[in-house]
Amino acid sequence: MTSTDIYLNDLGIICAVGTSVDEVRNNLVSSNTKMTYSRAFHQGEPLPIGIVDLELPKIPLTHNKWQSRNNQMALFAFQQIVKTVDEMVSLYGRARVGVVIGTSTSGIDGTERAISCKMASGEMPDTFDYGQQEMGAPAQFIAEVAKLTGPAYGISTACSSGAKALASAKRLIEAGICDAVIAGGVDTMCKLTVQGFSALQAVSNELCAPFSADRKGINIGEGAALFVVSKKQATIALLGYGESSDAHHISAPEPKGVGAIQCMRESLKMAELSPEQIAYINLHGTATQLNDQMESTAVNTVFGEHVLCSSTKPFTGHTLGAAGAIEAGICYSVLGGSGKPSYIPVQINTPTLDPSLAKINLASNEKCESVDVSDIKYVLSNSFAFGGNNISLVLGRNK
C-alpha cells in the first residue's frame, strides 16, 4: 500500500450487541443477539428494540446545548479512542484533526421529553436547548471535548449517514485539509423513529429476518461507532467508497438496484479490486420486502451468488444514522482490526433465502467453518438510505 492510503487507526463502538470492539466481535461469533422487547417508545404490543441498557457517561460541558443522550452515546465511543486521538494531536496538531459524525435523530429524544413536560406543566424545562437536536451537534460536541480546531460538521442522509462520514474523512485527508479525522455515526432511540417506521408498516413485532420469505420488517436500534481515520499506517485501510443518489422514491428503493449497483462498483473501482477479491459483504439487509428484494438483485448483479454475506441487523437493530458506521465497525473486526482472529458473521434468523429473491450466499455456520480466515483480506459494507442515498465502503487488511 502507498503513502496515499487512508487507514482506520482505532474504533470505539457501542450498540445493543456490545460496548467494545471485542464484545461486539464475541457476541457475533457466538450468534448471541441482545435485542430487548419494549413498549417504551410506542403504544401497543412490545417490539424488539436494539437498545443500549447501561449508564452512559456524564457530559463534561456545562452548556445545555450539549446535554443529550445522543452526545452521551458519542462520548462513550470517544472514550475508547481518546488515547489514539491524543496521539494524532501530538503528531499533527489540533487544527489538523477534524470531526465528521453522521446522525439522523441527534437529540430529538430530549425534545420529545421537553414537549411532554410542557404539555404537563405549561413550560419547557430550563435544561432544554434547541441546539440539542441540531444535526451538527454530535460532531461539534466531540470537537469541544477533544479541544480540536479542525473542521467539525455533521452528515444527515438518513441510514447512510455514518458510512458517508467515513467517506468524507477520506476526502478531507486526501485533499490535504486534515491529517486525521474522528469519523462515524451516532443515533439514539426516540419515539419519532419507532412510530414513524411503524406508520410506514415497516416494523416487525419479531426479531427481524433479513432475506427470509416470512420477513416482516425492521427492528429499530441505537448506538455509536467512531473511528480514528488518518494517513498513519495501520492494520486496516479504508480502500474505497462508492456513492449514488438514485432519487427513485422518498422511502422505497429503486427496485432494480441501479443506485446500489453503481455504488458497489464504484467502491471496487476506487479500491482497485475485482468482485472476486471480496471475502464478505455486510448487507444493508433491513428485512423489509422492498429493500431485501432490491439488495439481493444488486449483489447478485455485481458479485454473482458466491461471496459470503449477511445482515447483522438482527444483532444490532437498524441504528439509522449510526448504522453505516457500526456496520463498518463490524467489518473492521471481521478483518481483525482489534487484534483478534478474522471471522465472518453468520446470518441468524434466516434459515433459508426467500426463493423469490435473486440468489445470494447467506453465511451459515457450516459455510463459515469451511473458510480459511487468513484469506479474509477485503470486505464490503452497504448502506442504503431513504431517497435513494446509497454508499458502499471497501475495507482491507494491510498485510
Please tell me what the overall shape is: globular
So, CATH architecture?
A: 3-Layer(aba) Sandwich
Give the radius of gyration: 20 Å
Mean pLDDT: 95
Overall structural domain count: 1
What does this molecule look like?
By secondary structure, the chain is an alpha/beta fold. The chain has one domain: 3-Layer(aba) Sandwich (Peroxisomal Thiolase, Chain A, domain 1). It is built from 11 helices and 13 strands. An 11-stranded mixed sheet has the order 5-4-6-7-1-8-13-12-9-10-11, sandwiched between helices. The longest helix has 24 residues. The protein starts with 5 loop residues before the first strand and ends with a strand. The mean pLDDT is 95. One of its GO terms (cellular component) is cytosol. Keywords: Transferase. This is Beta-ketoacyl-[acyl-carrier-protein] synthase II. Belongs to the thiolase-like superfamily. Beta-ketoacyl-ACP synthases family. Pathway: Lipid metabolism; fatty acid biosynthesis.
